[in-house]
Amino acid sequence: MAAKERDTSTICIFDVDGTLTLPRQKVDAEMAAFLKKLKMKVKVALVGGSDLVKIEEQMGGSDVIKSFDYVFAENGLVAFKDGVQVGQQNLLKHMGEEKLQKVINFCLRYMSELTLPAKRGTFIEFRSSMINVCPVGRSCSQEERLQFAEYDEEHGLRKKFVEALYANFPDGGLKFAIGGQISIDIFPVGWDKTYCLNYVERDNFKSIHFFGDKTEKGGNDHEIYEDHRTIGHTVTSPQDTMKQLTEIFFKE
């Protein structure tokens, strides 16, 4: 379809991990080509909980912000439109050091008492707009990542961790969300993926589609999936994402 026929009143917003790529893996050639084809039909945006560096690693390098109409890192707290940064929030300024340290110290104590199949390094990752907590450690190997994901699935480890966080910080104005395969995201209420809609709404889209794999309650795609402004789609894999998009936009 020619570029002039592109429907600029419709946008598709995609989670990255588990939706466009396998968790923490690079986008494959089939998906990359499919997204280029989709971009000829409608506008396309990415929204990830990860920082921009990790999104770049997964989605094709440093030109990612120019390859999509919008790129939202850290749930949209770091925002790019047409290759230009249009917004950034700061967790430290918002919360203050004392409150942040109470949360971080609690997480470190909690994780110190867990016995897992493996423990590696980088259990707390401080991002500009959120804290990412990882019981297995973000420096784990791919094999150890999968091992933890299986253990977590069986024992509900992250679910129990989130429950403990809410119990200890009931009035902290914070959200605790299960993200990806191995971690928990901590951020102020309202700083979930719906934050990116603040930018998208300005362009007066008639249809805003969101695709994500963690749309269940407690998952980091839940709020934007449920938001009244979006048409939510739950996917199970990158292949499922392409299948659903084909049904919506490429059905003959």
From TrEMBL:
GO biological process annotation, one example: mannose metabolic process
Record's keyword terms, sorted: Cytoplasm, Isomerase, Magnesium, Metal-binding
Cytoplasm found in the keyword field: yes
Catalytic activity: alpha-D-mannose 1-phosphate = D-mannose 6-phosphate
Record-linked SUPFAM superfamilies: HAD-like
Listed transmembrane segments: none
Record: residues binding alpha-D-mannose 1-phosphate: 24, 127, 138, 145, 183, 185
Molecular-function annotations in GO: metal ion binding; phosphomannomutase activity
EC numbers, comma separated: 5.4.2.8
Location in or out of the cell: Cytoplasm
Record function comment: Involved in the synthesis of the GDP-mannose and dolichol-phosphate-mannose required for a number of critical mannosyl transfer reactions.
Family note: Belongs to the eukaryotic PMM family.
Name of the protein described by the UniProt record: Phosphomannomutase
Organism name: Potamilus streckersoni
